Amino acid sequence: MAEPSTELAGRQVLVAGVGVAGASAARALLSADAEVALTARDESAAVRELVGAGAEWRGPLSELPADVELVVASPGLRPTDPLLVSAHDRGVPVWGEVELAMRLRRPDSAPWLGLTGTNGKTTTVHMLESMLRAAGHRALAVGNVGVPLIDAVVADEPYDVLAVELSSQQLHFAPSLHLAAGALLNLAPDHLDWHGSLAAYELDKTVVWHAGVAIANADDPRVAELFAEAAPTHRVSFTLGEPAPGQLGVRDGRLVSHAFGDEGADLLAAEVVRPAGKHNVANALAAAALARAHGVPAEAIADGLANFRPDPHRNAVVLERSGVRWVDDSKATNGHAARASLLAYDRIVWIAGGQLKGASVDELVAEVAPRLVGAVLLGVDRAQIAAALRRHAPDIPVIDVVNTDHEAMVEVVRAAAGLARPGDTVLLAPAAASYDMFANYSARGDAFAAAAQELAR
Predict the structure, then answer these.
(1) CA dihedral 365, 370, 376, 382 (to 10 degrees)
(2) Of 74, 175, 234, 404, whose CB has the highest number of CB atoms within 10 Å?
(3) Which of 199, 193, 163, 202 is nearest to 181 (CA)?
């Protein structure tokens, strides 16, 4: 563990929310000799374990206790939460997991290569991890992907470099964040119930450019607009087109770099990138830019991408039979992510629906309508998707599955099989969250894959 921080020793710190990140924060604070109090909705096993290690359980709180000098907040807590409002009114600082990890770093700690965006973060951070490891670095993808960032920072055996996935909520509570390099992949309305407005969401996302090298997606109009207004010292961007000086891009079907003094360095063929799709080529370019900012050579970038294996439920082919491809992109939990997946295929039987979280799908359906040969809808908000399909794709067959129990996906897959013809792709890209019917998007994708494979048998 890290040596105790003199900044934290003896301070009364309230950890608000004791999930994975909160428990990690509490353990690190105890090791830093802070006086740690805990608050959460329930006294979980993690809470009891931390109390045994020296923390104090305060129960659920809506008002900040008088003795608290610092709050470390879970990203699940909105800025409007009464406890955090109480802290703000009293002038008590509120840190998130990322801010605390910054404060716990030693002078010789690993540099952070950070990235954020509405979609593609997890795929990109794992691409980056693969590139860094191909270059021989002891590297780890952290943040919202497995090992908590704090645990990686205070690990007994230090890392050479960390690939850090950053959510907008994490960035909101990271006032002193400064990365070795930071990339913004894309922007679309999301988590507006948490941030309160699109402007606030975008502002938090741009915190990732508090970095030695700031990296932006030149093809995303809003990202490009915000990047033009920002003032980072070293600017690099990426594009799916021909790269200008200071950019990474695609030339003659190959990823190339015109940044970092590379002058057209060839990286690898775009067709090698997995998962398939132009959006994942963009993700690969973002990861390559971050890797080059750390000095990773082109050969290691190519090896890292060639050896990268994407996580499940991200544009993963689960079955190919009778000329029909079945693809699981259950991770496409909003319209922006679904759009990227839908644009990767020419003839699609679309499986969509779930919790739209107040988002409109009208523009999405209008754009992808020419690619659709049929649709199967499920979930609580399927009627909104059906209405958009009637407006923009009135000639395609649409099957509405009203079943919501564990057999629903079997019915969905059978309906999709009836619509699909050789050359078609049956694509689960729901454009919606899964919690109305499934434990999470992984469970939804697993159910889809199992039903498709059972149908084939």
Answers:
(1) 10
(2) 74
(3) 163
Strand order of the β-sheet with 35-39 is 56-57, 35-39, 12-16, 70-73, 94-95
pLDDT the model gives residue 6: 61
Of 211, 248, 206, 201, nearest to 223 by C-alpha is 206
In the chain the domains, ranked by start, together with CATH numbers, are 12-95 (3.40.50.720), 101-306 (3.40.1190.10), 316-456 (3.90.190.20)
How far the first Cα of the chain sits from its last, in Å, is 51
Q: How confident is the model at residue 4 (pLDDT cuts 50, 70, 90)?
A: very low
Report strand pairing: 265-269 vs 254-257.
Answer: antiparallel
Residue 223 tokens, joined: 């990202």
CA 204, 210, 214, 215 torsion-angle sign: negative
- pLDDT-derived band of residue 275, with 50, 70 and 90 as boundaries? confident
CA distances 285 to 123, 163, 182, Å, are: 12, 15, 13
Q: pLDDT tens for residues 66-114?
A: 999 999 999 889 999 999 999 999 999 999 999 999 999 988 899 999 9
Distances (CA, A) of 386 to 161, 204, 361, 378, 440: 47, 34, 10, 10, 23
Distance CA 340, CA 385 (A): 17
Beta bridge partners, 74, equal none
Compute the distance between CA of residue 127 and CA of residue 116 in angstroms, rounded to an integer: 14
Q: Which residues, 6+ apart, have CB-to-CB distance to 345 below 8 Å?
A: 327, 371, 425, 427
